[in-house]
Amino acid sequence: MKFFHLIWGNLTRHKLRTSLTLLSILVAFVLFGFLCAIKQALVGGVELAGVDRLIVRHRVSLIQLLPEAYQARMERIPGVGSAAHQTWFGGIYQDPKNFFMQCPVVPQEFMAMFPEFILPPEQMKAWLATRTGAIVGRKTAERFHWKIGDKVPITSPIWLRKTWEFDIVGIFDGAKKGTDTTSLFFRYDYFDETRKSQNWGTGQVGWYTIRVKDPAQAADVARRVDEEFANSPAETKTEPEGAFAQGFANQIGNIAFIVAGILGAVFFTILLVTGSTMSQAVRERIGELGVLKAIGFTNGQVLSLVLAESCLLTMLGGVLGLALAWVMTSRGDPTGGMLPMFFFPVRDVLVGLGLSIALGLITGILPAQQAMRLRVADALRRM
Amino acid sequence: MSDPNSNNGALVQVTGVEKIFHRGSEDIHVLSNMNLRVPAGEFLALMGPSGSGKSTLLNLIGGLDRPTKGTVEVAGERLDTLSDRQLAAWRARHIGFVFQLYNLMPVLTAERNVELPLLLTHLTKAERRKHVETALAMVGLSHRAKHYPRTMSGGEQQRVGIARGIVTDPTLLLCDEPTGDLDRKAGDEILNLLQALNREQGKTIIMVTHDPHASARAARTVHLDKGQLTSGEGK
């Protein structure tokens, strides 16, 4: 710490140059924060997926339905603990831009399968007692200012092409920060009886989630499920919940690769900008470095001073950028519902901090070595 | 540490020193068969025209460079036997430098500049502050402690440079043209200061200069020309 004023003094020597470099680092880290939040929103479901849960869907595609009767058969398969189904409702609330997921479910089975959704007991009781009852996640409730007791009209372009009315009987929260609380769930019995008049889809569901008794046996259980329904009109494809979520994300592309590609380009540019600043800074004060060596600073100490300066520069920019990104992303999904799990994870903040230090070391190492190798007598002549 | 007086009272003993610089395929002989002895407590002036090798000799005595041949012994230590790291530590302990162009850090205040050599010691912050105050008082600049070099005159900057050179109480003070960039009045003040340090503090000083007025203040003057001593010391 006793060298701090020397490092700080050198850093602030050219205020405009340092400010511009700092600004470019800051912008890079804000971008880093945003991209991490987008990645989290797109692939976060993979991380939150239960290791003991499998998704069973129609082998052809997710939009093909499966018989409701499969549930009982699945639950008889060795290794399967329980099963619960969901069906894509695809409703629109007021405007197609107000996107959020709605699914009909069997309340008790569903809540048992997804303990990450926290619903107060009295609201659960109300849901069971209300045929048209629906529970909605906290984010969507806040987004549309819904409260318990509200009647919510949702138009489905798939089911009956009519406006369905639901009574909000509960608002659920997530057990973890990344838990998606944007969905609305309503009762399957109400859904199935109402759609009978459509003469299509009755007794059929979108997909099943099954809980395996032993996660280590998940692959065997998945194989057994698919074998059970092989050569039937509705063959199944069973996969871990994480792989299912990954499949959704992969429809957009390899998110991790895209994010890494953009960040790679940004940080490479920052590397050049900061590296150039540091090289210039060292070139300008070769004489001063010579003086430091003359009065007894060792080569290692001179190397450390230059490295500390570059690390301080990148860490300052990094911390400010990460803080700004944190503030900006903490306001939640900027798309109004398309990215429900949009947030900047603490893990990525720590990665960002590490990145800022690494950036400082990489950009500082060449100028620092140049400073270290200076011969004192030569350096003093260049004062 | 070796006894500084082990060499018959000589603090500095330069023996048979040669210094050759290589520029491309050309060898430039800057110093040839140089012998010099400086007793402890002496104020010695090294005079000579540009290119005579006086600054190179000063660099060798200060451990900033190594001789091509011969030995340099200061305070009982053979400098050619020390590694770069040991040499840096040795300089911090034994040598104070005063440069022609002051060579202060423009981003630091006067007191921070003076404190620089003390950062390499194990002194506490309070101890360092006390040493800095003493050094600045000795050069008459206590009132300018918080000022940056750019707000000071050349004479004041050089006095800060001297304070930095003496703050660790070095065995030897090496001054490379300390008045070379100053007007006569400011130069005289600096020479008075160096003289006082020598007479009152017993500081051993070697000063490179090409100004006879400056060398007249030294107790002894040796002349160099074309890398050899021409007067003041036996060859």
Brief descriptors of the model:
heterodimer, A: 383 residues, six-stranded mixed sheet, 14 helices, 12 strands, 53% helix, 16% strand, B: 235 residues, alpha/beta, Rossmann fold, four-stranded antiparallel sheet, 28% strand, disordered N terminus
Write down the overall mean pLDDT of chain A: 89
Compute the average pLDDT of chain B: 90
Counting DSSP E segments of at least 2 residues, the number of strands of chain A comes to 12
CATH fold description of chain B: Rossmann fold
Radius of gyration of chain A: 29 Å
Strand content of chain B: 25-35%
* N/C terminus separation of chain A: 27 Å
Give an overview of the whole structure.
The complex is a heterodimer of chains A (383) and B (235). Chain A has 383 residues and is of the alpha+beta class. Chain A has 2 domains: 171 residues, no CATH class; 202 residues, no CATH class. In chain A, 53% of the residues lie in helices and 16% in strands. Chain A is built from 14 helices and 12 strands. In chain A, the strands form 3 sheets. In chain A, strands 4, 5, 6, 7, 8 and 9 form a 6-stranded mixed beta sheet that branches. Chain A starts with a helix and ends with a helix. Chain B is an alpha/beta fold. Chain B has one domain: Rossmann fold (3-Layer(aba) Sandwich). In chain B, 31% of the residues lie in helices and 28% in strands. Chain B is built from 7 helices and 10 strands. In chain B, the strands form 2 sheets. Chain B has a 6-stranded mixed beta sheet. Chain B has a 4-stranded antiparallel beta sheet with strand order 2-1-4-5, covered by helices on one side. In chain B, helix 6 links the parallel strand 7 and strand 8. In chain B, helix 4 packs across helix 5 and helix 5 runs parallel beside helix 6. In chain B, 52% of the residues are buried. Chains A and B meet through helix 1, helix 11, helix 12 and helix 14 of A and helix 2 of B.
